[in-house]
Amino acid sequence: MKIFLSRAMGMLMAGTFCLYTDLSVALSPVTIVKEQHMEHMQNTHKASGKFEVKLSPQAAAPGIEAARLGRMTIDKQFYGDLQAHSLGEMMSAMGEIKGSAGYVAIERVSGTLLGKKGSFVLMHTGTMNRGQPQLTIQVVPDSGTDELTGISGTMGIDIREGQHFYNFDFNLP
After folding, report:
1. What's the domain of life for this entry (predicted)?
2. pLDDT at position 22, please?
3. What are phi and psi of 46, to 5 degrees?
4. Could you tell me the CA-to-CA distances from 26 to 31, 135, 169 in Å, in that order?
5. How many C-beta atoms lie closer than 10 Å to residue 117's C-beta?
6. 159: Cβ–Cβ under 8 A, 6 or more apart, which residues?
7. 101-113 and 44-57 strand pairing
8. Residue 68 forms beta bridges with which residues?
């Protein structure tokens, strides 16, 4: 009876250890994500202001003229919470139906964001589906430098009466 009980306790403890190990392995990522999410929420900031943009058409890259893609350089000046200058490139294509188009762009923003100096890269993905716009602008992961190292976030753009405005929701570690 003693041997049976000893083996049973050993198996129970081994089973408990395996269950605990399996649960801890399964729960660890959840805990880490939850902790990162809580930290992420505590470091959320908002910035807003105006910007001016100059788009300059460029020649198509050699060999792809037949693709009928538009190519432009971006030269942008930000004012408000983001005091910065950006340079970048944009590619675009028109759809076969009026009001349909798409564009992608990459720009490096350098300056001061709410008093923190550095740079980061914004990536744009935009479509117009028969007049209905969809735009996503987000910070390229790990593109932040200096005091903006680790920045992440998304930017929205609003154009009113010919003026451009931005709203930037971002996180810093």
Report:
1. Bacteria
2. 38
3. -125, 140
4. 9, 36, 32
5. 14
6. 165
7. unpaired
8. none
Same domain, 52 and 35: no
pLDDT for residue 100 is more than 90: yes
pLDDT band at 42 (very low <50, low <70, confident <90, very high): low
* Burial zone of 167 (CB within 10 Å; 0-12 exposed, 13-18 middle, 19+ buried): middle
Residue 167: both structure tokens together: 């709203």
Q: Is 34 helix (H, G, I), strand (E, B) or coil?
A: helix
**Which domain CATH number covers 167?**
2.40.350.10
Note the pTM of the prediction, 2 decimals.
0.75
C-alpha closest to that of 82 among 173, 172, 166: 166
Please give the Cα distance from 61 to 1 (Å, whole number).
84
Give 1-34 pLDDT, tens digit per residue: 444 334 433 433 333 333 333 333 333 343 344 3
Domain span at residue 142 reads: 47-171
The tokens for 75 are 């030269």
* Whether 73 and 17 share a structural domain: no
